[in-house]
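Reviewer has doubts. Consider these tokens.
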Amino acid sequence: MLSIVREWFGINKSIFRKLLFSYMITMLLGLGALGLSMSVLAKNYIYDGTKEELLRKAKKVNLAIQNDPMPSDQTTAMLAFLDQTFDTRIWVFDRHGRIISTSTQDEVFIGKSVARSIVEQVMQGKDVVQDLKFEGLSKPMLSVVVPWGQKNEVFGGIVLHAPVEGIDETVGNMREMIVWATLFGILLSTAMVSYLSWTISRPLKRIDEVALEIERGNYKQRVAVTTEDEIGDLARTINRMASTLEQVEVERVDFEQTRQDFLANVSHELRTPLTAMQGFLEALQDGLVTDETSRQKYYDVMYKETMHMSRLVNDLLELVRLEKQEVNLVKRPIDMNSFLNRLVFAFKEEAAKRNLDLRLEVVDPLPTIIADPYRVEQIFTNLIGNALKFTEQGHIKLAAREKADGIEVTVEDTGIGISQHDLDFIWERFFKVDRVRSCREAGTGLGLAIVKELVELHHGNIRVESKIGEGTRFVVWLPSEKKVG
């Protein structure tokens, strides 16, 4: 039945209706129960108070006439006076229950009898206040009966009647006030529900709109948070979710673009050696190369192209491992002065072949660093190798000094330099500053990307300065043993 009512009134489809019906039912039940309880309690209280008051008045009447066993004119006059004073009707009946005197001029009740049960209780000296009914009364009355006479002698009983119209009118007025209060409560609840529904449904509707936009893929939508309650918490959660999804979408787009660029770059890097090798193999297979000297040259070129592809794959795998932080560093103290001297000695012969001066300048003392020797050697081998490839004349200088709780190593050359536009891209995969030069030197375009990952893996930093035609300067900073500790 409740489900049918909900379906009929559409309660399940509207917060406003839910709140309205909830408040109205609560108000009606609450005020109804309160009103009923108050009216019953008030009626009983008024009736009980009136009965107690009638008992006190009846006993005062008995005090006035208890010395007169037979009513006289003086007794009748006294009853009339007390009737006017107490605003009650007074009857006096004898031991047999016959009414022998009243407080009014109307003698219609004289001679009539009171119920035997009442007479018996009165003759026992008891007050009677419950379930009293007297024949002949035209209006509803509240009556009490007390013994008439003295303690040791009872002549009969005294009955006091009080009209109940006033009591019923008071109770009726109270019930009317409760009804009006209930109606006012319903109006007030409607107003409160309207306001609450507006304050709740408006932000919820906005949250719903933003959620729909997010579902459509528009992650820039946000909910204005104006409250600190549960709805405000929900709005903040929606905003955080939208921000996260927007960030994920940006990362997805960037990743997709990176993936496409990566595939394009890998395809380009592999296509050139594979095309060359295919051409050489076809020439050898078709017998176009007859003399042994030319055949050896072809073999030599194919070997170099194979080595180039091997380096490309190895560098690529190395870079992927670094970016995923799958490389475990085996750190130990490194004396950078000895380390740099060994490094210069290793490249001295190659520099001499290129007619380049390779020099080392160290500002003592150099602090000891905690790092992976193999990875640090990989960093500076890449930088020195690049300097040798892109420098045709002049010198290459390594300089080292202590700086900011670490060591700063500079690799500087007098080579062709890098344009300001290219400086923003040199750390990216497969980026090559000079395509003609790089083809001749057979670089993979991954060296500087690997260098940057390795430096950051050691909690250091690297920067570059360069001018076209003047040379390039790479500056690497690595934390010292004290800084790491």
Observations:
- The first strand starts at residue 89 and ends at 94.
- The mean pLDDT is 79.
